[in-house]
Every structure is written in C-alpha cells, then in structure tokens.
Amino acid sequence: MVSLTASAISSSDQVIKSEMPLRIALLVLPSPLDLSANVEQTSELISVLLPELHSSKLLQSSELVSVQVDDFEANLTATIDAIEHGKIVQISTATSSLLMMHALKAAQNRIHPHAQLAAMQISSFTQSESTTLADSCMNKALGQAKRHADSVSKRFDLPQLNSTQQFDTVCKLINDLACRTHQRDASSISAKQAANHYWFTEHHQARVMAINLTNTVESTTSCISFIVSQGTGFIAAKSIIDSKRLQFIVSANSEAELLNELARLNSKLESKQAAAPSSILTLMRDNLLAYEKQHNDKVAIDKYAITLQANSVETMQQELKAMADALPKIISEQGQYRTPAGSYFTANALGTVEQNGLAFVYPGVGTVYGDMFSQLHRYFPSLYAKLERDGDLKSMLQADTIYHLDSKVAPAMPLGDLAIAGVGSSYLLTQLLVKAFNVTPRFALGYSMGEASMWASLGVWSDPHALIEKTKTDPLFTSAISGKLTAVRQAWQLDSTSPDIVWNSFVVRSDAKAIEALLPEFPRAYLAIVQGDTCVIAGCEIQCRELLARMKKRGIAANRVTAMHTAPAMEEHRNVEQFYDQPLLESLPTDIKFISAASGDSTVSNTTTGIDSQIIARSIADTFCNTLDFTALIHSAQKQGATLFVELGADRQNCTLIDKIAKQDRQCGSKSSDFPCCTVPTNAKGGDDITTLLKALGQLISHRVPLTVSPLIDGLNRQIALEQLASAACAKQIKGKQMSNLTLQGEV
C-alpha cells in the first residue's frame, strides 16, 4: 500500500491536457471503510458490502494507493497518474470515500462500477477573464469525453468550496447517480411532495453529469470540470427493516406454543435492549433466517404465524403484549387482529398451499397520484434497473406528470395518460411482488381497465410497452370516449354544429335496481359501475344531476370525462378489440386463473390453444363497453376459490370496495358471506411506501402464502456490516484519543 498526498505532486498548478477520455471506474465506498487495513479484518465486511470487489480478489492482486484529501486538485491529478500506471486508488475524507481504477481493470475483474469518470479539466483565469470560465472549462471536458453538451443530463456549478467540501460534494453527486436519485430543491416543493425520487431518463439514454468546481483567490479564478457518466452498477439496496422499522415473525402450531414464542421473543428483546444497535438487527436477521429455512426446507410449515412490527424495541414489546392479550379470542373466533403499527395475525390462513385463495386485483383508471412510489427505487434498485432495460420506464409511469413540481398537474392528467400510468404502476408492483418476493397468485382479476393491467403484468402479452405510445395517440382514448366524445356524439346522433357535450360521472350511495328503474326517463344518463353499496352514474351532466335529484341522493362528482362502461362506448367495441389484440409470449402462465368482468369466469382461453389473444381482446372490449358490475366480479371470484385479495396498483381503492362488498354481504345474509374474504393493499396514497409494503408482506406471511424474505435478510446483512464498520471506527477513534492523552500526561 502506498500513501499519496498533495506533496507528492510536483506542482499543484498542473493542468490536465489530455484529449483522450479518462475511462476511470468509480466505486462509492461506505465510509469509514479503509481498504488498506488488515485484509483479514476487513474481508468479511467487504464480502457483504462490496461482494463483487471481494470475489474479484483485486485487493490482493493489485497495488492499492491510499489518498487522504488535502488538496483536491492535486490529489486527483496524482490519482489519475497512479491509475494510468495500473494501480487502484482509494481517495477519502473523514466522511466520504471513492475507489478508483481503470475501467478496463474493472471489466476484467467483473466489477460493475457505480460511475465512470470520462474527463477532468483544470483551468485558471484572471477575474477579468473568468465570466465564462465554467463554460469554457466544461466544454474542454466535454471535448475530452467525446460528448456533446446536449448529452449532459444535469449540470452542477459549485463555487467557493474547500478541498474537503469539494470531494464530499462530488461523492454525494456520484452516489445520487449510482442510486438513480433525483434531488429536488426543497424550496421548490410543497410539504407533501418527496424531496427526492427516481432519476428518470429517456429510454436507452445514460445519465451524465457535468460538475464544475470554481474558486477565486485574490485576482485569480480556478475551475475543475468533470464529466461523469452512470456505471453499470448501482448502490446496494437500503434495508427494508432496520433499527427504526422492526419486524419479527413468530410461528407455531397451537395457541400455547404461540404464547411461549411471544414470551421467548420478549425475553430476547429485554436482553438486547441496552446492547449495540447491531444486536437488534442481528436478532431480526436470525429470526428471518429461521422462517426462510423452514420454507426452503419444505418441512412441516407451522399452522399459525404472527408478524410483529414496530419502530423501536420499547414499542415492539408493547406490540408483543397486545398480541398475547388478544390471541385467545382471535383463535377461538377464527378471526384476525391487526395493530396500527402493522402487527398482524389471522387464525384462518387463506394463502396456504392447500387452500391457495390468493388473488391479484388490478385497479382501473384514476388511482395514480402525484409523487407515487417516490421511495421504492432505493429499496429495489435492481428491479428498477431491469424495468429500465425492458422498456421506457419514464413513459410507463408518466414521470414528467406524476413527479411534476406543480402538484396540480397530476390530478389533471388526460384519460390516456392516466391509463398508461395506471398500467405502469400495476406492472411495477407486480414485478416487485413476483420477482423480489416470489409471490405467485392463483387468481387474477381487474377493475375496469385493470383487466388490461392484469394481462400486461402477469407474463401474457409479449410487449406491453408497445401500448404506451398507442394509448397516448389513438383516437379511442384521445377523442372517442374522452375529450370531444365522438363516440357519444355518434350514439346521440349529434352533428358538427351541435354544442360540446358536458359530461360527468357521480358516485352515489344506492343499489343498482333503484337507478335502473329511473334510467328510461333520463336517456342520456347511464349506470356505469356497480360496486357494493355505491354505484357510478355517468353521462350528460344535467341529466345525471336531475336523476340524482329525483332519487333524493347526493352524488360525488368525479369531474372526469370518460364514456367507458356506458352504452355509447359500444360504438367503439371493434376498435377496443383491435387495440388490445396483442401478441402473446411463447411461454404462458398455466397456474393462474384469469377472471374477466365480462364473462364472470376464468375461461378467457381457447380449449385447444390455451390463452388466446383474440379472446383476451374481446373480453377487454366487452368489459370496456358495458356496465361494470364489480360486485358480481368479486362474487364470481369467491365462488371459484379466491379469498385473499391483494391489490396491485397505486392507492388502495379496490381493497376499500371489496371490504364494503364483504360487509354488505354479511349484513344482508348473502350466500357470498359464506366465503372468507381478506384484502391486502400494497400501496396507499398518503402513506409511507415501504411501511405499507411491509404491512402487506406481514399479512401474506400470516396467511401462510409461500414467499421469500431474502430481500429483508440481505438488507439486514448490509445494515449489520455498516453498524460494525461504524463501531470499529468509533472504537479506533476513542483508542486514538486515549493514546494521545497518555502521551500528553507523560510529557507533563
């Protein structure tokens, strides 16, 4: 190991004159990890925090140069020179650290860098010449990187920082690049908006940063310009559970065993309460490993499982007591119990391999909201990277609108954009649950256009992304059943001289029969949706309001123009069918029953060829153009065996509706009340993304749905390693102070 400082450079005024790209791979290191320390001592930490670097054995085979930042410009010049001579370099301050090596060396050792330094230029001018210094220096760097100015995704101008601040700031920007995180200016957003979210980019376009560091001393201004592009790697996922978001699983086969396990966990918590933070993390990790082992080994799975969630050890102990107190009644009544913190237990598991009543439910248009999913990318970076490779993620989520700084933009999205973002949100959450946690449904169904989300998300359509541009431009969505409502004008036999249609829809608390009895008197008002104890009427706003007045009911106006599920939509039936006639994948799911609202059963297939694209398209068209009876759809799903309804999409509107349908069934003594029914939202507007997801996982675990918790275990392993790293650094610092004090005492 070699140590370099600014004194190793012959002149701190040296200027980088190379015209060739630098091609230097950058890895963001967790601080205060010192790669030059004893390899045996750091090997275990590196294996968890930097597994690629560990498996490459690069630290044992290459000369490592350690640079402590004291003169950033000189340090970087020395670093680049060392890298050109085949060395790898760790450059650090007390709070930030980068590992730098030639990109070819990284590729040869199968290391995916977080970023790549493509250019570095240093310029100095007198004050009279410095008005365009940053532009001039940056243009030189762009020339060195062989890039045009329009390829730069973001430019950062950072004046008057000292060397340590310069390095720390550059590391922070590289970290954001590796996290694919866009940082918003706090002064430009409301209190409800996210300060950061996913850094979206155009499809197949890499993220590139231009960073300009300027400093003025007396009459001279100097500038360092960097061009940094994203690497093939990304910062490891944040841990889903940690010392402020606790989760434990307690399982057993009887009430007595459960109570014993709860008491045993409480004793462990008491013994760990005053210990180091890593102790509670280790306890959670070991608890999850035991759960994972039982399911992986496919040994006899415990009949019951309780998931416990809390934000501290103290509140976890309160959750334990509350659960223990409630347990006898829950088991005797075969009921369920949940706490506001997210702890959950059911005595009637609906997701076991034997019963398997798991159904994925897909919401329709209008559930998406501004800043949705703003946290997810930091916890599932590999998922986002895959989605970005597979298609246009930015368009799929309509990011320009959903994450617009003006919070009024998202609610005003046109129908086509709402449809795209709705399918996109369902697709993302489905991939998360299926790919990350290995959850597979037995049934699938959709509310309205949720049927399209169902086919797009569950491995049926070969290229669902192809529908994005079609949805934005096809007259079906832009003018036929929205906008100018040409389908309605045709159905109502209006000519071009007729005034514009004033259309609206209203949610009203009423049964369908009461509305249907009055519809003949209001020919331009329609019963669009039946959903439990409420219905949606749509059509000419005047006639809808007259209908409501006649019923002596108050309706909640949606103020959205869409003629879906009304008689005029039948004018577009053939166009809808053609729009959704999509090519299918060669290998199709065989273990999922797809239930259509049009037919009410799971026979969306041809008996000889299996799932058929034309039958799918016709089913979507039938659902699209007729009244949607969501109540009947849920009842049909229940009769076929669906009991555990997991909503895959933005917000939790379908869960609310299904809960109301089940409640109504119980109150009126419907035959459907004989079927168990439980809903699980995976997202909730106004809630914390990860907390809601963790609660959903907790419900699924208690319902004994087969799944993996490896993402939770992996996150805890990294978190434990980081805690150990911080503890070791703290101990080293304390020891250093003690030695310093001893020396001073000796001198006295």
TrEMBL record:
- Molecular function (GO) terms listed? transferase activity
> Superkingdom of the source?
Bacteria
The record ties this protein, via InterPro entries, to:
Ac_transferase_dom_sf, Acyl_transferase_dom, Acyl_Trfase/lysoPLipase, Omega3_polyunsat_FA_synth-like, PKS-FAS_Synthase
Give the matching SMART domains.
PKS_AT
Which intervals hold domain Malonyl-CoA:ACP transacylase (MAT)?
361-687
Protein name stated in the entry: Omega-3 polyunsaturated fatty acid synthase PfaB
Q: Which organism is it from?
A: Shewanella piezotolerans (strain WP3 / JCM 13877)
